Amino acid sequence: MTNRLELVEVSVLAQKQARLHSEIVTILFENRRYIKTIFLDIHGLYEIAHVALTIIDPSANLVVFSSTPNIEYNLIQQNLWRNDPCFLPSIQNNHELSWWNDQKITSDLEKIKLKNNQLTEGLTISRQINDFYLLYSFATRSKRADLRAYYASNLFGLLDLGDYFYKSIRSIYASYCKIIAPPELGDLTSRVSTINNPAKLRLIANHSILRGE
């Protein structure tokens, strides 16, 4: 596969302090209707109840698209996002998941991300493409005892869902990323299309829907 999951090295970008896009809150909410249509294709697969994509470009600008935007909004408003390891690509390792409630997560972060949304477990996977970082986040309300083992064993299935999410919103992201063209995932075909009705997976060209109007 041309765009394989690569080891995320502590590069110049990773050493920089990521900064929020100047329109981060607008971006979070004005696309919510379209994000919801994408989420409906993913919801329930691997018992997923939340999905988000954080994109950090080569100049360290950070943008987030989320099916539950209040999570990221509260992190931003309370300035807690800087303390969230899941926003830091340099801590991510190849084929390794970052859990939302590990020892690095404070009680405030856990409350905003998990407890306030009745979520039982959350995880983030980092994917580096050229000088961009794509951070795929998923969360569940499942109470099964083996959640971590379950998600670890389905890592590449989750990456596939993340790739599908990114491909679905790439054109929207490009409208905010005006200087550096966002990476393409080439001819990678998501296995989501073999699970759901292919008709549901088309990108919606109606700009009023894309912008959540």
Instruction: Give the percentage of residues in beta strands.
Output: 15-25%
Number of domains: 1
CATH top level? Answer: Alpha Beta
Task: Estimate the global geometry from the Cα principal axes.
Answer: globular
Uncertain stretches: 1-15, 187-213
> CATH superfamily, please?
Transcription factor LuxR-like, autoinducer-binding domain
Helix content: 25-40%
Class per helix and strand makeup: alpha+beta
CATH topological fold name? Beta-Lactamase
Number of strands: 6
Through-space gap between termini? 37 Å
Cross-sheet strand order for the largest sheet:
1-3-2-6-5-4
- What Rg do the Cα atoms give? 16 Å
Describe the biggest sheet?
6 strands, mixed
The assigned CATH architecture is 2-Layer Sandwich
Task: Name the quaternary structure.
Answer: single chain
Helical segment count: 9
H/E series: HEHHEEHEHEEHHHH
Question: Could you give the topology of this structure?
Answer:
Layout: H1 12-15, E1 19-20, H2 24-30, H3 32-42, E2 48-56, E3 61-66, H4 69-77, E4 98-99, H5 107-113, E5 121-129, E6 132-140, H6 147-153, H7 155-176, H8 192-195, H9 207-210
Parallel strand pairs: 1-3
Antiparallel strand pairs: 2-3, 2-6, 4-5, 5-6
Helix pairs in contact: 3-7
